[in-house]
Amino acid sequence: MTTNYHAQRVANELEEPVREANELARKLGLEPYPVNYWIVDNDEMNQLIAYDGFQERYPHWRWGMKFDRQRKQNQYVGGKAFELVNNDDPSNAFLQESNSLADQKAVITHVEAHADFFANNRWFGLFTGDAPGSSPKAAAMLARHAKTVESAIADTDVERSEVERWIDNVLCIDDVIDQHSVFARQRTIESEHDHEDIETALEGLGLSEAVRREVFDEEWLERQREDGSTQSFPETPDPDLLAFLREHGKQYDDEAERAREMEPWQREVLDALRTESYYFAPQRITKVMNEGWAAYWESMMMGEEGFADASEFIDYADHQARVLGSPGLNPYKLGKELWEYIENTENRREVIDKLLRVDGVTWRNFHDAVDLDRVRELLEPRDALIRISSDRLDELGALGSAVDHEALSSARTGEIDVDRYPWKVLTYEGLAERHYSLVKPQNRGLLPQITQTDLERIGRYVLDDAVYRSVEEAIADVDRTAGWRRMAEIRANHNDVTFIDEFLTQEFVDRHDYFTYEYAHATGDYRATSTDATDVKKKLLLQFTNFGKPTIEVHDGNFANRNELLLGHRYNGVALDIEQAKQTLSRVFELWGRPVNLMTIHKEVSEKDLEVARRRSREPEPTERGIRIRYDGMEFETSELDDDQTAAIEADDIDYDTKPDEWLA
Domain SpoVR-like C-terminal: where (predicted)? Predict the structure, then answer.
């Protein structure tokens, strides 16, 4: 990237922070991909953001549009790119040379946590198949895809505009994939019969258009369709529309006004873009988890471990405030708060579990039998772990497994600057005790707030209830790493939907003041509607299921025995924008080559119902009806769905709550 003098100076300045951040991350239990750090200027950063964090992408107009939007955001809105890292092995992270040292350090610590998430979350493993030693090799893959598109453009028989239009068609539906399945580059969809339509067969005979119209008129063709098999395919709704189109789609020939086979370059481009959709899917479905994970460990390293020194801390605090304080649904803030809640609740469960094993303590008498102020004092980290310095090293020798004794020896000989990097002489266990969450000021009320219901739930599994003779003995046996180990398990197995569904509780909602709001048709504005965790969770899940976009599935590739495509919108209470749906259908038509249909459920509110609702100061009840929209390349038709078709696209309770058990590891 940039090779100017200033960039080189910045690179030299960051060599130590990069090295030390990686070591600290590993001390804290993270296992990140190796990261290559690049110093870039403002224009280079804007280009990389436009290219989704990569240096080479296929030629297309949208990259220029994204670049221009990012540049204008920087100029006129005051936007600033703090972090940019890609999922690859090694990962590549880009640091803007104009950032302050505090900002650079914050990005580096943030990036190390992202690289850990990329390497260890099972949803990222779906792209590589989770085979031993497998990794994305994304930069090389995207470079190959760029060459695929460039080759199509270079073909003298193909217009550049034709290639770009084909890409536009695919990008309109690039999220209609099976995001919960292991990626397979090629897929063969079995069917009971040959679905080649009669028109295509006639094309192979080489007949003139005059003969075709004279002998094989539309009436004859219609009879052949009716006499053919009525077997539909696929057997069950298929969520991977891109794969279905790759296997069974055609292109629409405007001149001949009929479908014909895709050109090889068209299938290659479709295949490349589908591959990229699967590659980027994990980043979309783990946005809250991933950003929250990175924000949590960044805060731990920069703030609590002093990676930002005294002269940098104010700048860092401002950086963190801007990231966590941005308006709207903020994945950094929501994710970090959920990770902290998980850490606290697991640590609390571990402490309560030990206390319920003290002779004479039960879940019924817990609050009367246990002095929780005394418990908090006992949970405080040992003083020698807090006040580590070069003149107090002798105090560490007796702390057992909390201390890295090899590093301690190096510190005694001056090989380690323990005053600047005290964490170097500690182990994972020692760092867990040093940063134990329940003794932090903001969390000190969590133990007294434990409810009788939670005590009973934990006590139900305590069979050996007289293990410890005293509270002191029980607390001495508390595992200080319980919270971090639980976080690592969750990081490995969950995505945003399962993460929010399982861990967003009423206690969390109350503690962080979350609520739902709705648009009120009666008053024409927004109003708060609920602080119930079930409502908050459902509202959030609807924004994260399928990237927050409508779930569309292939229901039939031979609809009405006419080789028409029938798609179904899995309706979960949120209606489609019909005009947008029509625009997308017109794009799908280009990839199918024959008429396309979409089943959905439409909500309607009559003016009369709206007026009545206004007078009564309540919301009108919309009428729902199933409809099918058909596009034949010329015009749209809308018809009613029968009851069976409507039932086929209505999500059941499990779908609506978005918590299918098979998503969990």
Answer: 550-602
Return the pLDDT at 322. Answer: 86
Segment holding 47, helix H or strand E: helix 42-50
Q: Which residues contact 75 (CB under 8 A, 6 or more apart)?
A: none
CA distances (Å), 34 to each of 19, 23, 82, 137, in order?
11, 11, 20, 13
Domain ranges for the chain, please list them.
5-136, 548-663
Nearest CA to 379 out of 512, 482, 490, 487 is that of 482
Residue 221 has pLDDT above 60, yes or no: no
β-partners of residue 603 are 624
Q: Tokens 């003779």 identify what position?
A: 469
- According to DSSP, the residues that pair with 626 across neighbouring strands are 601
Q: Name the phi and psi angles at 151, rounded to 5.
A: -65, -40
Q: How far apart, in whole angstroms, are the C-alpha atoms of residue 487 and residue 120?
A: 12
How far is CA 306 from each of CA 50, 421, 627, rounded to the nearest angstrom? 34, 8, 60
Helices (H) and strands (E) in the chain, counts: 30, 11
Q: Compute the mean pLDDT over every residue in the chain, rounded to the nearest whole number.
A: 88
Q: Residue 12: pLDDT above 80?
A: yes
pLDDT at 652: 66
Q: With CA atoms as reference, report the closest residue to 27 among 389, 291, 300, 296.
A: 300
The answer to whether the CB of 278 falls within 8 A of the CB of 243 is no
**Tokens 């590093």 identify what position?**
407
Answering whether pTM is above 0.70, one says yes
Long-range pairs of 437-441 with CB within 8 A, sequence gap ≥ 24? 437/340, 437/343, 437/344, 437/347, 437/483, 438/344, 438/347, 438/348, 438/351, 438/376, 438/379, 439/376, 439/379, 439/380, 439/381
Q: Is the pLDDT of residue 8 over 80?
A: yes
- pLDDT recorded at residue 194: 44
Predicted local confidence at residue 270, as pLDDT: 97
